[in-house]
Design a protein that fits this description.
184 residues, alpha/beta, Glutaredoxin, two-stranded antiparallel sheet, 38% helix
């Protein structure tokens, strides 16, 4: 009986190793979202710039927008930010969702790096992030003019990602195709 008990930890290790190996072929940026094809969640949250001003999903109703989840503590957001600035310069409406951040730090961050956002939702506690199923920052959602989430990207949106995942759908929804430069 004692010899059999020695094989239990080895068996558990083998099973766990097999499970982990099967998951290695998954791309973490292709996380499923139950909200793709569903309406953007209803919310009423303070603006990043003005804590007395509430913003809601009605503030971008009837428009095609990107909703970008970002934070000052997010290193990848620093990499993504020049691409967002370039898209905004070409007329893409981007709504910021400042996620689990400090208001003053976020305001300074935008002042220093440029502000590509039409407005920013301040989600200090992450409640809208929970409703969206946010894993972290950055995440970007393409929302159509009817308020339906059409695409979700976990990770940086740069030139390659814009062209591969967003450009065709954005053109279908708006009739325009912003192109990111080679440096983004």
């Amino acid at each position: 009986m004692n010899r059999l008990a020695l094989f239990i930890p080895l068996s558990l290790f083998a099973v766990l190793t097999l499970i982990l190996l099967l998951g290695l072929d998954k791309d973490p940026t292709e996380l499923p979202s139950a909200l793709v094809g569903e309406p953007f969640p209803a919310f009423a949250m303070p603006s990043l710039q003005d804590p007395e001003s509430l913003v809601t999903q009605q503030d971008f109703a009837d428009q095609v927008v990107l909703v970008n989840v970002w934070a000052t503590w997010c290193f990848a957001c620093r990499i993504e930010h020049p691409s967002l600035n370039a898209l905004a310069e070409q007329g893409v409406k981007i709504i910021g969702l400042n996620y689990k951040d400090q208001r003053k730090a976020a305001q300074l961050w935008l002042l220093e790096r440029g502000n590509p956002y039409s407005f920013n939702i301040y989600d200090e506690l992450g409640s809208l992030g929970i409703d969206l199923g946010v894993y972290g920052a950055p995440e970007t959602y393409l929302v159509d003019a009817q308020g339906i989430i059409r695409h979700r990207r976990v990770g940086v949106v740069d030139k390659r990602v814009w062209e591969a995942e967003f450009a065709a759908l954005y053109q279908e929804l708006t009739g325009t195709t912003p192109v990111l430069g080679a440096t983004q």
